[in-house]
Amino acid sequence: METKISDYSYENVSVIENADASRKFIANVFMWMFVALGLSALCSYIFAFNPQLSSLLRDPETGRSNLLGMVVMFAPLIFILLVRFSFNKLSFVALTLIFLAFSAVMGMSLSYIFFAYSVGTISSVFITSAVVFGVMAVGGYITHQDLTKFGSIMIMLLVGIIVASILNIFIGSSGLDLIISYVGVAVFVGLTAYDVQKLKRIGAGVELGDASAKKLAIMGALTLYLDFVNLFLMLLRVFGGNRR
Is residue 225 part of a domain? Predict the structure, then answer.
């Protein structure tokens, strides 16, 4: 799940000081992010607690993923790669549909957490994640300090987390898994502030209502969505004492 997209075609956007445009752009980004989170939460819940839908992804007796379940687990990455490499070719409508489809499939994939953790643990960690994410998002928006170098360090650490996670699949070390989780929390906390500041600057350099601005808002929503979901999953691994 520790998937991150960086920059897209942001480097082609000129930055100017337009606070009003920036605020409206950020508001649009968060609107789409909340839509995606709501859709993911709905799909996650119904595919976890509806026996008919749940059986489509996993064996009812063993709880193990079937072929469709494995496809669903890896499908979000395919969506991300599709968006990453086809951004300039996709229309706003096409990009929006892909974004919503990604959110739904991601929710289906996240339904597995209900079989690993108690509902109480998931709920408390979700609330904690929302508070931490909100604080860092506000911090990234209002700070006057340039977080570019800080963000670059976070991205390097993220690459290290991905490599360590892949290695730990073969090692199977619970201690390393916990270290990865703690570092992951710190990384996605930092990336939240960095990404919000980056999006604030992008919003100041786009023309509201323009098709490219709408597409950039979708991509910004995807970035923050991934920050939040990965922060949530890392915190869930840290505070997963009530794991079933």
Answer: yes
